[in-house]
Design a protein that fits this description.
462 residues, mainly alpha, binds beta-D-glucopyranose
Length: 462
């Protein structure tokens, strides 16, 4: 008979894993486009700007979803919103799988994007609110791990379903997303609402009952008291977006906005969404042959996210940011060089490109990947964490859309080498910015982080 501590640990892990299917769907539905694009291009004879528009449709939906997410999770509750996103994910998968025209596919992808935008906010929120205090960091990072696993699964599905003889191979790829949506839907039916939301609604007994299933026994009463205080404070500030513009919160606000600016302008998603097309530029000929190395990129992404999760609480956020981001810049320069010297390298261009992209993904997964989502959950005081995190999430989808919408046009205008070097140059600015702005949140309670801002402390002094 397991003791109640280990039973609670298993309950929490089970709840977090089921909820993190929301992260898996985020990864799946953003990654799946990469292997579908070469087929869509051939099937509907699409030009670069239509390809960019189709790729960006999901992101436009996500921008909108991230704007709505804060409000609807407060009004409807976290659980109902997670259930609703599962339904939209499912409907979107079926719609896009059977789309009869590029326009219909675009609208379908936009709808999926809406669910992604909401899920990218609601999933970590749900997990954080159901996690016992002492394990919150690792459980929140589980979400990033599931995003990368979702990307990998989408690449594997793309690869398995790609058939050079069938230009409509893309249909099965989008349809495959219906499966994790069903898992999320069925799983969430059995999961509880979060104690924090229940208590904020005045449903204290229900909230305490859920807490008793997950939180360490010695912390339950304290947690209930804190949640009551927080929701009273939050009620006072409700709707006061101006609160976040106060001078003492300028540092966390800038961190939430700029960490995602630099994350997206590293060019990560040109690789996540367009890698088969990039591999075709580098000399891989068939659609299927260009998807295979993408699967390897997806594996490296998952593997190094594990490494990062193991290191975040040991070596800390700042060293991972500085080392990972610097390595990522070297990989971008090398990616640019492999295209610049294409004539001299000949066939070797392909392998130089694959190698640079693997290096890039490894460094990204160790630094900017997990750090973006982790920091936005750590840097804001509790009473404005919802607003702060949704501004961060909005910033993520906005810059993501800008990069995805302009990438192929830029490649056409200045060539792939200069495009990747431009990302590298922006990265240099990012490393300098990070030196001054990335706080070392390792080992600090979230209350200590808040006190640091209140005292007027600088991010790097934490
Ligand atoms: C980013 C995504 C990206 C993914 C790659 C996430 O942290 O937010 O935009 O596609 O990492 O693993």
């Amino acid at each position: 008979m397991p003791d109640s501590g280990s039973r609670k640990r298993s309950t929490v892990l089970l709840i977090s894993t089921v909820a993190a299917t929301g992260g898996l769907l985020f990864g799946f539905d953003t990654g799946v486009i990469s292997g579908a694009l070469p087929f869509l291009r051939d099937h509907w004879k699409l030009d670069d700007s239509s390809i960019e528009a189709l790729t960006t449709a999901v992101l436009a939906g996500a921008v909108l979803g991230s704007l709505l997410s804060g409000r609807i999770t407060d009004v409807l509750g976290r659980k109902k919103v997670m259930l609703a996103t599962a339904v939209v994910f499912f409907a979107g998968a079926v719609w896009t799988g059977f789309a009869g025209s590029p326009a219909s596919l675009g609208w379908g992808r936009g709808t999926v994007g809406l669910a992604i935008g909401v899920a990218s906010f609601a999933t970590p929120l749900y997990i954080a609110e159901l996690s016992p205090t002492r394990r919150r960091g690792a459980l929140v990072s589980l979400n990033q791990l599931m995003i990368t696993i979702g990307i990998l699964v989408s690449y594997a599905a793309d690869y398995a379903l790609a058939n050079d003889a069938n230009p409509e191979s893309w249909r099965g790829m989008f349809l495959a997303g219906a499966l994790p949506a069903v898992v999320l839907l069925v799983g969430m039916v059995f999961l509880p609402e979060t104690p924090r939301w229940l208590i904020a609604q005045g449903r204290e007994a229900e909230g305490r009952a859920v807490l008793e299933r997950v939180e360490d026994a010695d912390l339950v009463e304290d947690a209930v008291r804190r949640m009551k205080e927080d929701s009273a404070a939050e009620a006072r500030y409700r709707g006061a977006w101006s609160e976040i513009l106060q001078p003492w919160l300028r540092a966390p606000l800038l961190i939430a906005i700029l960490i995602f600016f630099f994350q997206q302008f590293s060019g990560i998603n040109t690789i996540i969404y367009y890698s088969p097309i990039i591999f075709q530029m580098a000399g891989f000929v068939s659609n299927t042959a260009s998807i295979a190395p993408a699967v390897v990129v997806g594996c490296v992404n998952v593997l190094f996210t594990f490494v990062s999760i193991a290191l975040l609480d040991r070596v800390g956020r700042r060293p991972l940011f500085m080392v990972g981001f610097s390595g990522l810049i070297v990989a971008l320069v090398s990616l640019g060089l492999s295209f610049h010297f294409r004539a001299q390298l000949g066939d070797a261009t392909r392998w130089a490109t694959v190698g640079s992209m693997l290096l890039f993904c490894a460094f990204f997964a160790m630094s900017l990947g997990p750090l973006g989502w982790l920091l936005i959950s750590e840097v804001f005081p509790l009473r404005i964490r919802g607003v702060g995190a949704s501004i961060g999430s909005f910033s993520h989808w906005f810059w993501n859309a800008v990069v995805a919408y302009t990438f192929l046009t830029m490649v056409k205008a200045v060539g792939p080498a200069r495009t990747f070097w431009l990302f590298a140059a922006i990265g240099v600015v990012g490393v300098v910015w990070g030196y001054f702005f990335i706080p070392e949140t390792k080992g600090h309670s979230l209350e200590q982080v808040e006190e640091h801002w209140l005292k007027g402390g600088r991010p790097r002094e934490l």
